[in-house]
């Protein structure tokens, strides 16, 4: 391995100098991950692992510095290493966007084109799995992570890869993934490119965005000619994204809400507190996906996130079932809004109901009808079908009934015929 290649690598992929990490995997492949390289690992009476204690609690940690020997080992394929991009002063020498999932190739090209528009040279590296990539942007000097992340987030938004409420499934995260160190760790880790073993499978190598993401013939020639972005240029770009005049919401401005097949919330003047409330309650991770992925199980067909927020250029769209929670939050936080009810109300149907309800059934029906929406929960034999039919009769509107079993379906047909005097062919 030539010293020139090691120097090129060392000059580009710079993170914390006092600590880096090595990839590990159990023999049965049941678990894997990265752990900081410690010079005291497995030393008798020193290493916490020998005492069945956790490394994060160790008082004897002596982390190795990422030097030329480790770089050569990584490039030759002897080991797999990763670095921590976020430095002690909350700056970094690069930023990288991580894409994986089914459409990673399409989305990283959208990202590349948008970066090109802003004169940000971007270098695309296929990940070790071969099922994703990193888009790297290198800086001439270390630059505040909060600013570089702000720039890239704005570019991702402009490319319609993310917005305030959701992101494309292929976009995963940024490296660094936080603006500031919390003091409890080293920040997130990024796996290094050009790993010797992975390269044999054409992974961890850089791809040509102008040629259908085919691998560059000469990887080192590309890295030798990397264009780093100057920090004064980054400052100007940061100012452009953050100092442009934006509409300011005055107390007179109201959020517009349309109540239709969904709840439509106008995007103008959305306060941050409302954005966070909607994201916290309507976009959340699927615990089944996380558990299966952690255990190394197949996650095909398992959603990574439950996303109940839809978005277009004009509106945020959320489920109608969240209406009461939304109104309560707006009123509690004194957020002004205008509400337009555009639900279709059809011509009333006069049902001839012969339902005779018990007192507890009548109370349940009255409580349900007093609410805009809800779910009636009752034990078997309580008469849920009869109560449902009575609510249909009192609402006097066409109704949709969903049944998960043929037996339940037939029961509804029979009860409707009997209690509403409607023939089967008219149901």
Walkthrough of the structure:
It is built from 13 helices and 17 strands. The protein is an alpha+beta fold and 427 residues long. The protein has three domains: 87-234, DNA primase, PRIM domain, CATH 3.90.920; 255-341, 2-Layer Sandwich (Translation Initiation Factor Eif1); 359-426, no CATH class. Strand 5 (123-126) and strand 6 (132-144) form a beta hairpin.
Widest sheet, order of strands: 7-4-6-5-9-10
Q: Under CATH, the topology of the largest domain is which?
A: DNA primase, PRIM domain
User: What's the total count of β strands?
Assistant: 17
Coarse shape: elongated
Our measurement of the CA-to-CA distance between the termini, rounded to an integer number of angstroms, reads 79 Å
How many domains, as an integer? Answer: 3
Low-confidence stretches: 245-251
Strand content: 15-25%
CATH architecture of the largest domain: Alpha-Beta Complex
Arithmetic mean pLDDT: 89
What structural class do helix, strand and pairing data support? alpha+beta
Approximate helicity band: 25-40%
CATH class of the largest domain: Alpha Beta
Number of helices: 13
Computed CA radius of gyration, to the nearest angstrom:
29 Å
SSE series: HEEHEEHEEHEEHEEHHEEHEHEEEHEHHH
Q: State the major sheet.
A: 6 strands, antiparallel
């Amino acid at each position: 391995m030539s010293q020139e290649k090691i120097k090129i690598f060392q000059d580009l992929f710079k993170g914390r100098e006092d600590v880096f990490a090595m990839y590990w995997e159990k023999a049965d492949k049941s678990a894997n991950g990265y752990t900081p390289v410690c010079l005291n690992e497995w030393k008798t009476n020193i290493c916490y692992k020998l005492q069945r204690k956790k490394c994060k609690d160790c008082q004897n940690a002596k982390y190795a510095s990422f030097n030329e020997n480790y770089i050569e080992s990584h490039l030759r394929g002897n080991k797999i290493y990763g670095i921590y991009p976020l430095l002690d002063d909350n700056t970094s020498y690069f930023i990288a966007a991580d894409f994986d999932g089914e459409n990673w190739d399409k989305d990283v090209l959208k990202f590349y084109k948008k970066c090109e528009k802003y004169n940000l040279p971007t270098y695309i590296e296929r990940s070790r799995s071969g099922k994703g990539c990193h888009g790297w942007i290198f800086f001439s000097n270390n630059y505040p992570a909060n600013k570089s992340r702000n720039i890239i987030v704005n570019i991702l938004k402009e490319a319609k890869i993310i917005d305030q409420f959701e992101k494309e499934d292929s976009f995963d995260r940024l490296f660094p993934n936080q603006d500031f160190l919390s003091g409890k760790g080293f920040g997130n880790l990024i796996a290094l490119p050009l790993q010797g073993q992975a390269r044999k499978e054409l992974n961890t190598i850089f791809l040509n965005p102008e040629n259908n993401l085919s691998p560059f013939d000469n990887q080192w020639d590309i890295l030798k000619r990397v264009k780093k972005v100057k920090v004064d240029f980054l400052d100007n770009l940061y100012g452009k994204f953050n100092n442009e005049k934006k509409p300011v919401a005055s107390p007179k401005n109201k959020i517009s809400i349309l109540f239709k097949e969904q709840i439509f919330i106008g995007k103008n003047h959305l306060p941050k507190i409302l954005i966070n409330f909607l994201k916290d309650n309507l976009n959340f991770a699927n615990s089944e996906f996380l558990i299966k992925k952690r255990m190394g199980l197949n996650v095909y067909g398992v959603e990574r996130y439950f996303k109940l927020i839809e978005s277009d250029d004009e509106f945020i769209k959320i489920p109608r079932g969240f209406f009461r929670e939304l109104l309560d939050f707006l009123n509690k936080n004194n957020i002004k809004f205008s509400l337009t009810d555009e639900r279709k109300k059809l011509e009333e149907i006069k049902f001839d109901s012969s339902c005779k309800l018990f007192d507890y059934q009548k109370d349940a029906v009255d409580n349900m009808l007093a609410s805009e929406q809800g779910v009636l929960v009752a034990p078997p034999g309580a008469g849920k079908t009869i109560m449902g039919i009575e609510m249909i009769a009192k609402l006097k509107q066409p109704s949709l009934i969903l049944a998960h079993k043929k037996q339940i379906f037939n029961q509804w047909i029979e009860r409707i015929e009997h209690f509403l005097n409607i023939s089967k062919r008219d149901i």
